[in-house]
Amino acid sequence: MPTTVAAMIVRGVVQPRSAATASAVLLTRGHYCDRTTAYRAGTAYGRGVFKKRWLADLVVIALFVATVISDEIRSGATRPAVVIVCGVVAVLARHRWPVAALVLAGGGLIVSIVLHAPAQSLLLLLGFLMYAFTLRTSLRRPWLCSLGAATVVFAVGMIADPAQWWSLNSLGLYAWIGGGGAVGEAVRNRRAYLAELTERVRQAEQFSEQQAHRRVMDERLRIARELHDVVAHHIAVINVQAGAAAHVVKQHPEQAGPALEVIRQSSDSVLQEIKSVIGVLRDPAEAGSTEPSPGLSRVPALLDGLVGFDVAFTQIGQPRELPAIADLAAYRIVQEALTNAHRYGDTSATLVITYAENDVTIEVTNRIAGHGDGTGFGLIGMRERAAAAGGSVTAGPAGHEFRVHAGLPAPSYALETSS
């Protein structure tokens, strides 16, 4: 699908408004192709449009000049020169100023009619410019403009020379100018249809990827539930056997051996189940990693990696080893908060980590540089990590600053009790 969309843009089947739009169509949320493909598609589209535009201008100008020369050759040199200049300027200006180009050509035609010498070449050019105007206008009824332009020209002709203009041949004026507007309207509708088709392709691909991601998450949730059931069963067996071993070890030590063997086998089964399921749930990019989970002890290294971003780091209290889940959650909260501060704030932030007797608190503040356009998933992730560790996170603007405050329970005696 990414290659198909890029190919449609490169071939000109799908025509966005600019090369930047062509790249944006392919790069929306990063789901459709890599940046190289999008850049090539947008650049190829831009070069193609530029070449086609100038080629069309040269063809139209050449035909117009030839028409003027054949029609105005007997009028001397001044009139053909004025008509040619008027027509060439209108042709070149139609891309950026279609209304001005239409008025210029129409005004020249009206002047020639008033002088009792209608310029047929400007009349022909007026139909082409009406096509260009209708193609680029945002009006819902552009045919009214075609009808109005033809009526104005006809009215001026009737005032200047009623005998010549009051005839059935004057209906050709409406047919030519109205026909140019009709063709422009048809081409505009075709482009709008192709743009809608491109958007539908993009949305369909996005929906497909979201569905695939959801199926993967559902499958992982199912596996996690199965792991919970298996682990709960084995832990229950271990608990029962440990209680039995503790009862018999005092009176009949020789009978504690079978109970301890059951405990060993059950614990081994639990470890194998956890290892196999975690192997499925783990990201393939992390499969070969043996690095321990990061904690607050790695915050200085994290700060050193923030190039071009100054962080005023303050540590209050005596650092100590925290429970694993609290230590990991604290590090991830610091990492996400500093990332958001770097992305949506100015070039500095303040980080304060406080070690208390029964908890650890984290506070990150930064000045708000502008309106963020994030999804809010970072704040949700921080709250979920804190909740998993039994803590909480509050985040929001405070004046001209954005403040993130996290509190995680980390009793100093937890490690001694567990050991």
TrEMBL record:
UniProt source species: Paractinoplanes abujensis
Enzymatic class: transferase
Identification of the protein by name: histidine kinase
Q: Which Pfam families match?
A: HisKA_3 (PF07730)
Q: A single Gene Ontology molecular function, please?
A: protein dimerization activity
Asked whether the keyword Cytoplasm is assigned, the reply is: no
Domain Signal transduction histidine kinase subgroup 3 dimerisation and phosphoacceptor: from-to ranges: 219-285
List all membrane-crossing ranges: 77-93, 99-131, 143-160
InterPro entries membership: HATPase_C_sf (IPR036890), Sensor_HK_TwoCompSys (IPR050482), Sig_transdc_His_kin_sub3_dim/P (IPR011712)
In its keyword annotation, does this UniProt entry include Transmembrane helix? yes
Please give the catalytic activity noted in the UniProt record: ATP + protein L-histidine = ADP + protein N-phospho-L-histidine
Q: What keywords is this UniProt entry annotated with?
A: ATP-binding, Kinase, Membrane, Nucleotide-binding, Phosphoprotein, Transferase, Transmembrane, Transmembrane helix, Two-component regulatory system
Enzyme Commission numbers on file: 2.7.13.3
Which chain positions lie within coiled-coil regions? none
One CC-aspect GO term? membrane
